[in-house]
Amino acid sequence: MNNNNVIEAQDLTKMFGDFTAVNAISFEVKKGEIFGFLGANGAGKTTAMKMLIGISKPTAGKAKVAGFDVYKQAEDIKKNIGYMSQKFALYDDLTVKENITFFGGIYGLSRKRIKEKSKLLIKELGLEEVENQLVGSLPLGWKQKLSFSVSLLHDPKIVFLDEPTGGVDPITRRQFWEMIYKAASEGTTVFVTTHYMDEAEYCDRVSIMVNGKIEALDTPKNLKQQFNVANMNDVFLKLARG
Predict the structure, then answer these.
(1) What angle do CA 17, 18, 23 make, to 5 degrees?
(2) How are strands ordered across the β-sheet holding 68-69?
(3) Which residues of 99-112 are buried (b: 16+ CB within 10 A; e: fewer)?
(4) For the residues 63-85, what does the mean pLDDT come to?
(5) Contacts within 8 Å (CB) and 24+ apart, 199-205
(6) Is pLDDT of 88 > 80?
(7) CA-based R_g, the chain, Å
(8) Do the beta carbons of residue 130 and residue 97 sit within 8 Å?
(9) How many angstroms separate the CA atoms of 175 and 32, rounded?
């Protein structure tokens, strides 16, 4: 594995019976990069991510994440990454503070470290007034920002975000991306899936999946030049039309 890469995939494939959900994709992600994994719903983004985070075994191909093999070292991968799923991952029937404490324990942090992290996180998110409130009572935008922060509790090398801004308002989306930039500036590699093509502009590089294949991979600027269009949505439309 190249020392500058934290993810390397070669011909990574996932089949369900006769259906090929992910078709021999190859790419790498560099340290500290914000890497956008784009495509329409059903393009294979989430299936590919599940293979990379060690919860779904590939049918063929190979991949390493944080230096660990997806086939043989899935548990090591899980310890070195953060993950925010498409569906809200925290517990609605626990308070903000209880969720942070619970996940801090799962990540193996000491009680002292959990207390320090909890205080810092609640202050950064401006949740002091609701820290003892059930998470289920919070607006979706607050839940999503809290979920992202919790995925970073153990200072992972890479954080995987699956459609993190789905369903939230434009202001919250912008705030969420500010949090992503902050995490990247502090050395965390961010691997983010989205079907919002305007969010591609915020990434260092993007890959675009169509029907299980990566059909384009480069910086947003280079892709727009390559396809002679003004925005990433038009790049996607050209690829989708074949």
Answers:
(1) 100
(2) 19-30, 5-16, 60-65, 68-69
(3) bbbebbeebebeee
(4) 93
(5) 199/36, 199/165, 199/173, 200/36, 200/38, 200/232, 200/235, 201/231, 201/232, 202/34, 202/36, 202/177, 203/34, 203/35, 203/36, 204/33, 204/34, 204/35, 205/33, 205/35, 205/36
(6) no
(7) 18
(8) no
(9) 20
Token duo for residue 195 = 């079907």
Residue 88 tokens read as 């809200």
- The sign of the torsion formed by the CA atoms of 139, 140, 141, 143 equals positive
- The pLDDT tens digits of the residues spanning 29-38 come to 999 999 999 9
pTM: 0.90
Which residues have a Cβ under 8 Å from the Cβ of 151 and sit 6 or more positions away?
82, 83, 84, 89, 159, 161
Token representation of residue 235: 């790049």
**Pairing mode, if any, of strands 5-16 and 60-65?**
antiparallel
Token readout for 138 is: 């919070």
Residue 194, H or E segment: strand 189-194
What is the C-alpha separation between 144 and 161, in angstroms, rounded? 11
- Residue carrying the six token digits 């801090």: 104
| Strand duo 189-194 + 34-39: pairing | parallel
Q: Which amino acid is at 230?
A: A
